[in-house]
Structure formats: C-alpha cells, structure tokens
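tmp note - (thale cress) hypothetical protein
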Amino acid sequence: MAAANKQQVDVSDDLNYEIWARIAKTTLTEKGLWDVVENGVPPDPSKVPELAAKIQPEELSKWRDLAVKDMKALQNLQSSLTDSALRKTLYASSAKDVWDLLEKGNNEQAKLRRLEKQFEELSMDEAEQTNSYLDKVRKIAEQLRRLKNGKSDYEVVTKVLGSLSESHEDLATLYESEKRESQSSNELPVYEMLSLALGPVTFYEDMWLLSSGTTNHMSPYLKFFTTLDRRHRAPVKLINGSIIMLKGRGDVKVMTKEGKRKTIKNVLFVPDLDRNVLSLGQLGHLGYIMIMNRDKCILKGQRTEKVFGEAVKEEGGFVLRYQVIEGNFTST
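out:
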C-alpha cells in the first residue's frame, strides 16, 4: 500500500483525478476487482446477530471472497495514489471508501474552480442597482465559504468597488462600513473533524488516530491534560454536518514504548468525541513528514529526523499507541 511503490509519481505530487480514475477503473476491471469498488462489501454476516444464526457456510464463504477482493482492490488503489492523495485516504477501510472519497473531493474541487471563475468574472450591468449586484457577489462568496475557500465581507465589497463606475454614490460609506465590520468581527473559530465520523469502531484510551481531515489534535479525556485553558471554547464540525463543542485547549504528556516522554501541545478538549485524534496538518506545520511502509506510518522530523511515532494500521485507520502521563484535571 506504500506510496513509495508507485512506478511513476507526478513531480508536483498532485493527483490528476480524471486520468487516474480511468486508469484505475480499467486496471481493476481487468483484475476482476471493480465490482467491490462499485458496489462495496456488506458487513460480515457472522457478526450480525440476526444473520449469524441462520447463515449458510456457502454464503459466509462468498462474503469472505468478497472481503479478500476488497482488500486487494484497496491495496491497488492506494498504491497508485500520490503521497498527498494517499494521506487523504488513510482512514478509509474499503476500496469503495477510497473511490467515493476521491470522487467527492474532485467534484468539490471542480465546483470550487467554477465558483472562483464566476467570482472573478462577475461584473455589474450598466442599469443594475448596487444592492442587487452586491447580493449576487455575496451569494457566490457564501458558496465559496462552504467549500472552505471563503471570501470575507471586505473582499466582497472590494470586488464590488472594482466593478463599479465613478457615477455611483455611497460607495465610500459602504466600503468603510463593511471594512469596519470585518475588522471588528469576534466570531468563534470553527474547528473541523471532516474525515472522521463517530463510531462504530471501538477506540481505547491509549490509541491516537492519525487524521488528515482534522484541523487540530483532539481528546475527550479530561484526565489526560497537564495544562488546560478552559476559556478556549468553540464549535467542532463533524463530517456529517453536526456540531459538538470543545471545552478547552492544553497539553498532553505521553510516554512512548521506548520509555521516552513527549508533550503533545495545543490539544483540544472535546468531551463528546469517542477517540483521541492527531492532526496530520498540525504535525506538518511543526515540520513532521509521513513515511509509509506497508501497514505502518512513521512520523519523522523533516530536518531533525527525530521520530515522533510509528503508527500501525488497525481497523479504524493508522493508530499510535501512547501511555499517557495523566494530569490533575478530574471534572468539567
């Protein structure tokens, strides 16, 4: 599954989805694996109580054959990805998950490019009212915000000003009021955990799941924190659109299996989570890179070459296991 096994890697490490998808589908079809990508694999019937009691041996055998095909398809897909695309699929547990995730991302990128072009090319008709044109610009800007490429009110008004002639009055007032509103905004930050859905995999306290779609490190365990700023409170958006609240930010001290102590800084305390999460983005900002080696993922400092940890692929994704040196916090 390692990205290093690819025969050819784009220089920019960007995935050309349209070309990749055609080649991947053809390859999987030739190998007789496309059906599990297209249709997925049902849950293990032996672990479903209402099915386990009456399932026939031949039915269970068919399911196991599908599961083997799915694992082969998953390995084929992930081994063909660029490093950046592979990181986005680390938590995927099936070939269909990988395909759907990349397809959705490509659709969103296409929509983003289309909206960006609309925003740049939008201009005001000669007889159009200022407020009407402003509404059109804001509508596109709001759609861009939903795709995490938002335009501030200040940028919106700047766009409007650039499209108008000198004959329009009240522009300075509009511009300055929007600028002051943008500069004085004190909205809470919104954190995201878009690559993970709560349940159904069981996670234990010593497990830290690597996530490429999570903006920050997070933990639901108050007792883990050695420091905690309870004044830091903000919403956390999940992949299904629901919102949960974080109730603090602080540091967590852990001990590796080699007995070395590490401090994970700026961890968000999110009581309603069911797992500990390490953000690959946050680690990347600190200079750590990810090295894939079959079913293992090594996090190492790009300059220092110090190893942060070695994650192993488990049911829920790539997981680091740390013994936590518990803090003094015992109640919310």
